[in-house]
Amino acid sequence: MEMNEFIEKFAEAVDMDAAGLTPETEFRALDEWDSLSYLSVIAMMDEEYECQIETAEFKQLKTLAALAEFIETHK
Fold first, then answer.
1. I want to staple 11 with a disulfide (CB 3.0 to 4.6 A). Which of 18, 20, 56, 63 is the partner?
2. pTM of the predicted structure, to 2 decimals
């Protein structure tokens, strides 16, 4: 998976600009992050990458890189 493409898809799911997002970005610290963002990212993971994740697993992920790595290892 190409990281910049993943960041763009994440930003689209969260309805924000991808500028300033990096693999090290802690997505829960974003001002835009809320419960709707969580659901949108879960849906994006399923639709774009055919990857499902349990809530407990998602809670362990902190950065965009960790999220992308989870997708890579679970699709």
1. 18
2. 0.93
Q: Which pair of structure tokens corresponds to residue 33?
A: 């992050």
Tell me the average pLDDT of the chain: 96
Instruction: Give the C-alpha separation, 58 to 27, whole Å.
Output: 12
* Residues pairing with 5 in the sheet: none
**Residues β-bridged to residue 63:** 26
The confidence score (pLDDT) of residue 75 equals 79
Backbone angles phi, psi at 67, to 5 degrees: -65, -45
Alpha-carbon torsion angle 68, 48, 43, 45, nearest 10: -20
Note the pLDDT tens digit of each residue in 28-54: 999 999 999 999 999 999 999 999 999
* Cα distances (angstroms) measured from residue 60 to each of 18, 20, 70, 72: 23, 23, 10, 16
